[in-house]
Design a protein that fits this description.
- Helices cover 55% and strands 12% of the residues.
- By secondary structure, it is an alpha/beta fold.
- It has a single domain, classed as 5'-nuclease (Rossmann fold, 3-Layer(aba) Sandwich), CATH 3.40.50.
- It has a five-stranded parallel β-sheet.
- Helix 1 packs across helix 2 and helix 3 packs antiparallel against helix 4.
- The longest helix has 15 residues.
């Protein structure tokens, strides 16, 4: 069993059903669940998920979206150590620094993200959703 951080962009793809990304993003999360991985989400990502879902579909949908993520993933705590560690990571994007610091604190084994320009200096592997599906030996399917 691995501990896999799922980045905000991947959750938002699924929650907002983004046509160009939802299939691979949902497939990557499903691959984690199928393999028995512990899925992680940075606690700060939950407020971003809520924000995007609320703007798209209203507050009730936003609360359902956060609840769905919490049913699937374990929130990675954002405490003083994570916030301070994030200052030196993923510059100039502090939000990605927080995700990277959460990964380190939680001893994550990998991250699934659509952000090709970030998380390149981490000790653990970085995958796009499609790369993650392939690395796990699954084939993408249309949902």
């Amino acid at each position: 069993m691995s501990r896999v951080m799922v980045d905000t962009s991947v959750w938002v793809d699924v929650i907002l059903n983004r046509p160009d990304f939802v299939e691979e993003s949902k497939g990557a999360i499903m691959a984690c669940l199928e393999e028995g991985d512990e899925v992680l989400v940075a606690a700060t990502s939950l407020k971003d998920i809520f924000y995007f879902a609320e703007r798209s579909a209203g507050a009730d949908a936003a609360y359902r979206a956060v609840e769905l993520v919490l049913d699937i993933a374990t929130p990675a705590q954002v405490d003083t150590l994570v916030c301070r560690s994030a200052l030196s990571l993923e510059r100039p994007d502090y939000e990605n620094g927080i995700v990277a610091a959460c990964m380190s604190a939680e001893k994550a084994d990998a991250i699934v993200t659509r952000d090709a320009d970030s998380f390149n200096e981490l000790a653990m592997p970085k995958y796009s959703p499609g790369e993650f599906i392939a690395a796990r030996g699954f084939e993408p399917i249309s949902l």
